Amino acid sequence: MSYGEDRVIEAKNISFSYNGNVALKNVSFSIGKEFMVIMGPNGSGKTTLLKIIMGLLKPDEGTIKVFGECPEKVREKIGYMPQKENIARHFPIRVIDVVLMGISNKRFSRKEELKKAKEALKEVGLEKIWDKPFSSLSGGQQQRVMFARAIAKEPSLIIMDEPFNGVDLPSREKIMEALIKRMKKGVAVVTVLHNINPVLHHVNKVLLLNKEMIAFGNPNEVLNELTLQKAYGGMVSVVVCKEGYCHPLIGDTHG
Questions:
Q1: What is the pLDDT, as a whole number, of residue 146?
Q2: What is the pLDDT of residue 86?
Q3: How far apart are CA 16 and CA 171, in angstroms?
Q4: Fewer Cβ atoms within 10 Å of its own Cβ: the N or the C terminal residue of the chain?
C-alpha cells in the first residue's frame, strides 16, 4: 500500500553518542508519505532515532530533515505516542485533559481544542468516557487515549514507540483502524515495533537497526534470516515466517 511519494523524512549519515557511548552510527534513510517500522534489539538506538526525528536530540554528525526543515521547526506537524512504560498511569487527570495535552497549537481556540480532543477519542472508541480519571482505565484503554493524544492536533507525521506492548486485541484493532484512516489521508507513520505481524499489510518500509543500519527497504526484502541474525545475533534463536515475512520470536527490543 502506498500513500504518496512526497519526501517526509530524509536522514543522511546520522551518528549520535551518549557520553562517548555510540548509540547510532552512520544511519541514512528517507521516506515519503509511508509507514516505516523500526526494528532492532535492546540498545540498538531505536528510541534515540525517534528523538532525533522529533528534534529532541541533535545528531553529532550527519543531517536530518523533516518536511524539508530541521525537526524542531516542524514539531507542530508531529504527533507522538511514547512507550507504555514511560506513561505516568496514576497521575490524577481526566481522559480529556490527557488528550488536550497533545494540542499545543495556538491556532485553535479552547472550544476548538475540546472538539478536536473529543473527535480523537471517538476515533478510538472512547468518546463516552472522556471525563473519567485516566488512572481508572485499563492498560489498553490508556494506550488508546495516548494515541488519541497523538492524533488530536491532526499531525502530518505520527511517531509511535512500541504502541502495542501489553495491549489487548480490541485496543490494538481500534488504534490500527484509526491509524489506517489517517494514512489514507496522507499521514506518514514511523513506529518502533517488536512484532511486525499486526501491521505488516500496511508497512511500506522497514529499518532494521543495531546502532548501524543493518537493512532498509521493503519488508519482504529486509526481514530475512540473514539480516535478522545480523541485527539480533544470538538473541534470536527462532525465526517465524508468515506470508513471506519474518520476525524474531525471541529477543528484547526496547532501546
A1: 93
A2: 53
A3: 35
A4: N
Residue identified by cell 472550544 is: 111
- Mean pLDDT per block of 10 residues along the chain (255 residues) reads 66 95 96 96 94 96 96 94 69 88 71 90 94 90 94 95 88 92 94 88 94 94 87 60 49 43
Give the 3-state DSSP-derived string for the chain, with helices as H, strands as E and coil as C: CCCCCCCCEEEEEEEEEECCEEEEEEEEEEECCCEEEEECCCCCCHHHHHHHHCCCCCCCEEEEEECCECHHHHHHHEEEECCHHHCCCCCCCEHHHHHHCCCCCCCCCHHHHHHHHHHHHHHCCCHHHCCCEHHHCCHHHHHHHHHHHHHCCCCCEEEEECCCCCCCHHHHHHHHHHHHHHHCCCCEEEEECCCCHHHHHHCCEEEEEECEEEEEECHHHHCCHHHHHHHHHHHCCCEEEECCEEEECCCCCCC
- Yes or no: say if 45 and 208 are a contact pair by the CB < 8 Å rule: no
Domains of the chain by residue range: 9-84+156-248
Q: What is the pLDDT of residues 11-37, one digit of tens each?
A: 999 999 999 899 999 999 999 999 999
